[in-house]
Amino acid sequence: MRDFSDLLTPRAVRTGVSVPSRKALFTRLGQLADECWSLDAKKVSDLLHEREKLVTTGSGNGIAIPHARYTGLPHLVGAVLVLEKPIDFDAIDDMPVDLIFMLLTPPDAGSVHLKMLARVARALRDQDYADKLRGAGSDDALFAILTGLEARDAA
User: What is the pLDDT of residues 33-80, one digit of tens each?
Assistant: First the structure.
């Protein structure tokens, strides 16, 4: 299932994002979490960084799925960034990353957290889908692809 409307809002989807490093990316994701859900930007950035220290969330093919559990979050939320230029991410294939799907979940999300990670990973593993996301010309187009609006409008 590639309809991520249960996770995303239009404000949480951005194309053409420019960041020089993974640390800067996590700072930008924290800022986005603040803008979209009034979460503590520094806390989000720190949580993503701490999680990344355990093992890379760079899953290969230019994709990363940084994720963390955020105390006080009422439900799962996500954000997607398409970077202007790929950055080093220590990904499993040693390739730089340009497609980011961040997940934040409540600490008690348990299996829901793992199922959502698997759902995102499955969708992004499809090269045609990932290329379509990378090729979205605007935030609105990216949101439409991610939430299935594009397919519904075409029908």
Answer: 999 999 999 999 999 999 999 988 898 999 999 999 999 999 999 999
119 residue type, one letter: R
- Given the residues 49, 67, 75, 113, select the one marked as catalytic: 67
- Of the candidates 86, 104, 9, 92, the residue with the CA atom closest to the CA atom of residue 48: 104
- Paired residues of 14 in beta bridges: 81
Burial of 32 (0-12, 13-18, 19+ CB in 10 A): buried
Is residue 101 within 8 Å of residue 78, measured between CB atoms?
yes
- In whole angstroms, give the CA distance from residue 106 to residue 92: 27
Prediction pTM value: 0.92
Give the pLDDT band of residue 149 (cuts 50, 70, 90).
Answer: low
Contacts of 70 (CB under 8 A, 6+ apart): 39, 43, 44, 47, 104, 105, 106, 107
Any catalytic annotation for residue 75? no
